[in-house]
Amino acid sequence: MRPGIYEHGEPGSPVVAYDVFAGALHRYPKRLRMFLMEEHKQRAQQLDHQMGLAQARRPSDLRNRLSVDVREGDFHPALIQKLRATGSLGKPLFVLLDGYGGPDIPYSLLHELAQQPSTEVMVTFAPSFLTRFAEKDAAHRQRGDAAFGGQEWQEVFRKPKSDKFPFLRDRYKETLHRAGFSHTLQFEMLDEGGRLLYLIFGTSHAKGLEKMKDAMWGVDPSHGIRYRDPKDPGQQQLDLALEPNTAPLRRILLDHVASSNAGRTVEELQAYTLLETVFRPAQVINVIRRMRDAEAVRTEPNGVTKKTRVLLPASHPTPSTAEQAALW
């Protein structure tokens, strides 16, 4: 694979991103800058060439409003230095940090970015590198320490195999919180080969979280990418579609209602859905109505609005995961 282009000539992710931004700027009179970091000189030159070809396909007015800056250098500290030199720190930033090959993103970079209130990050994190190589290799453990900002993650070596990936996922989410991102959104992504990759989004704004979630649910399902919600007790695999399967959300909401003797309001369930699951708040009301009609929950009053309180049925035990799945 060459930078900006894949093995069979398909446009690479930087070119795809450029085309998406260009399409958006056709509708909005805004300006946007893309900064692309490439560690190796020859690859940086190839990437610059591909981005030049992408720009050449666009009218001059749009090229002036959508600039591209390809720089040779490691993303840390070179990225921060570039953002600071151009006056971009402190302005709205979306920073994609691709650590697919292992724990490549240092905690120090996350912390520095999080100090800027208008900055959001998306980190790709492949847990298999640490579980396969780090236990017996001190250098790899040091890379893990740098990525997590501490050594707590090394507890993974004492976890059973089935718990290793979820443990690392949760520790990395805590890492983003500790760095300063108050809201995080995490997806388990399985490609067609069944390989697992975590996408972890960090922001300081609930609205940013909601917008990112809407974007993720808008992914074209024909690409063969599937998401699993890590809070779904059934770990049901989700196929993104126009009418998504909300059975996992029903189980998640039932568990959350059961965790409080006083039940939960619909507004509380919507906030929980936004902040703690892959689902969207807009899906909650219809789900609660269906759960009420199936007598899995009761609502006070019976009509379902944001202020409605949702409780477990007075004379029914909490349904098991299997029973809940059977309802739908």
Radius of gyration: 22 Å
- State the separation between the terminal residues, measured CA to CA: 44 Å
Largest sheet: 6 strands, mixed
> What is the class of the largest domain in the CATH system?
Alpha Beta
Give the CA-based shape: globular
Given as residue ranges, the uncertain stretches (5+ residues, pLDDT < 50) are 220-225, 321-328
Q: What spatial order of strands do you see in the largest sheet?
A: 3-4-6-5-7-8
Structural class, from secondary structure content?
A: alpha+beta
What CATH calls the topology of the largest domain is: Rossmann fold
Beta-strand percent range: 15-25%
CATH architecture of the largest domain: 3-Layer(aba) Sandwich
What is the averaged pLDDT score?
86
Helix content: 40-55%
Number of domains: 2
Number of strands: 11
What's the helix count? Answer: 13
Q: Which series of helices and strands comes N to C?
A: HEHHEHEHEHHHEEHEEHEHHEEH
Task: Describe it.
It is a single chain. The longest helix has 19 residues, at 161-179. Mean pLDDT is 86; it is low at 220-225 and 321-328. By secondary structure, the chain is an alpha+beta fold. It contains 13 helices and eleven strands. Helices cover 44% and strands 17% of the residues. The chain is globular. The protein has helices at 13-27, 41-56, 60-65, 75-85, 107-114, 128-134, 138-148, 161-179, 206-217, 247-258, 266-276, 284-293, 321-327, and strands at residues 32-38, 66-72, 93-99, 119-125, 183-190, 196-203, 226-228, 237-238, 264-265, 298-300, 309-311. The protein has a six-stranded mixed sheet, sandwiched between helices. Strand 7 and strand 8 (237-238) form a beta hairpin. It folds into two domains: 13-238, Rossmann fold (3-Layer(aba) Sandwich), CATH 3.40.50; 247-327, Arc Repressor Mutant, subunit A (Orthogonal Bundle).
